[in-house]
Design goal:
The chain is an alpha/beta fold. 27% of the residues lie in helices and 14% in strands. The protein has helices at residues 54-65, 91-101, 103-106, 159-177, 198-203, 210-217, and strands spanning 40-45, 69-71, 82-83, 88-90, 111-117, 121-122, 133-136, 140-144. The strands form 2 sheets. The protein has a 5-stranded mixed beta sheet, with helices on both faces. The N and C termini lie far apart (38 Å).
Amino acid sequence: MRVARTVGAVLFTVVLALGPALDSTDSRSEVGDPSPHICDIYFVPLGPITFPSPRELTIYYRQKLGLTIQILSSVPIDPVVLDRVRRQVVGEELIALMKRNYPHLAKDSSVLLIGLTKSDMYIRGKDWRFAFAIRQEGRYVVASTYRMDPVNFGEFPDARLLATRLRKVITKQLGLYLYGLPQREVRTSVLFGPILSLGDLDGVSEDFDAEDLAQMAGRSRRCRI
């Protein structure tokens, strides 16, 4: 993994820590955690999100998977979520931040909350350098675009690449939590894992493969989203 350097006005810089970088946590969902109870999905901007915009994502998932995803008001980044030594936000704290700001939704077991942040994120409970995403409890996800953005590696902006990377991460979380599919070992599926680098993320498909789709078709759901 290359070490990113700060380019322009970015909030966090890369720090070195032990261990690999993975795309999420919550071991239950690595082997499939069916969630037939999920009835509503919400995007929660955590801090300013300009691109890819939550609205663009809702349009994509409506067209791609037939899902209706609602957008909640942006939640400012609380200082409590920051690790000032590492200069990163803490994934577990971001999930807690969502819960505090939307307690009525946090109490509703039929709701899936997907937080979006452009800040550099790590997971306190792991020894990873960073995380593209964290997931917990079958219905909380936060995805970070910081390491997905070429600009943060001193490269030219690439809006299409950034959007594709984020969609891959979000679609994987939907596959695990909404459809209860298992993580896969083949790159023809967006459920491939573990994701250890940007190279892994770029090398995996953006879509569910035929095997994934067959499993999705065979699963009954209580709610139609």
